[in-house]
Amino acid sequence: MTSPIDIEDGGTSVVVGGEPGPPARNEPVRLEGRSPGQLMWTRFKRDRTGIISACVVGFFFLVGLLAPLISKVYGKDPYTVYADERPDLFDSAGVPVQPNGGISGDFWFGLEPGNGYDVFTKLIYGIRTSLMISVAVTVAVVVTGILLGVTAGYLGGKTDYAIGRITDFLLAFPAQLFFIASMPVVVSLFVSPRDETPTYVRVVALILVQWLLGWMGLGRILRGTALSLREREFIEAARVSGASPWRIIRKEILPNIVTPLLVQSTYLLPGFVTAEAGLSFLGVGIVEPTPDWGQMFSKASTELVMQNDITYMFFPGISMIIFVVAFNLLGDSVRDAFDPKTAR
Hints:
The protein is mainly α. 64% of the residues lie in helices and 3% in strands. The protein contains 16 helices and two strands. The protein has a two-stranded antiparallel sheet. Helix 1 (36-46) packs across helix 16 and helix 13 (258-281) packs antiparallel against helix 16 (314-338). Mean pLDDT is 81; it is low at 1-17.
C-alpha cells in the first residue's frame, strides 16, 4: 500500500493514493535564507567525528581551567614533595614501593619517582601550563598574520615586497634549532645569569620565541586570500565609493578571511603545544617545580624512571596523543564544514 501524496492545485488539496484531504489555504511560501555561518554550523553538527573531537578538546581546556578547583577537591597539589612528607611510600632509591608507580585510592595516577610529586595534579597543572602558553602564541600569531598578511595582499607594491622579503628571511631559519638556541638568550635579556629565572620570564620567552617564527605560514595564506579578494567587484565598488583602505580591509576583506583563519588556527594550536612540550623536554622551557607536559616527558626519560616505573610515561603520553589527534580531527571537520566539496 502506497502512502498518500498531497498535491496543491488552485487551493484544493488533491490526494494521490489516499483519501481526499481538507482544502488547502493559499498562503505564500516563506523561504528563510541562512548565512554561511549557519550553513557551516549545520554541516558541522552532522559530522560525528567533529562533534566528538570538539568535546574532547573542550574537556582538556576545562580540565586546564579548573585545575586549581580539581586539586582542591582531590586534596593534593603538584608541589608537595611526598618523598619527604611520606617516606614510607618510597624505597631507598626514591621509587614508589607499591606497584604501577604507587597508584592507589589516595594517589590516582601514582607518585613520581625521585621527588614523589603527585602525578595526577602534576598532569592537570601541566595541561594548564601548556595550553595557556600555546593559546597565547596562537593569538599572537593570528593577530600578526592578519596585520601583515592582509596588509601586504591588499596594498601590494612596495609594502607587499618588504613584508614578503621579511617573511622569506624568517622562513630560512630552522625553527626547532632556533628555538633551542634562542631561549637562553631571550631569558638572559630579562634576568641576570647569576639569578634564578622566574617562571613568568620563561613563559614570556617561550611565547616570544614561538611567535617570532610562527606567523609566516598563516601570513602567506592570508596574503594570497587578500590578493584574490582585492580584485573582486564588491571591493572595487567600495573603492569607487570613496571608502578608505582601512575601511575596506575591516569591512570587506576581514569578514571573508574567517574561513582560512579559523581552519589554520585549529592546526596551529596543537603544533605549538608539541613545540612547547619539546622545548621543556630539552630543558630550555618550563622547569621544576612548575608542572608542564614536556617536563613530565623529560622526567619519564630518565634512567631512574625508565628502569623502575615505566607506567609514569603512560598518563602524560596518552593525554598528549589524545589531545593532538582530537584537535587535528577537529580542524579537518571545521575545514569540511566550511567547504562541503572537500573530500577526506
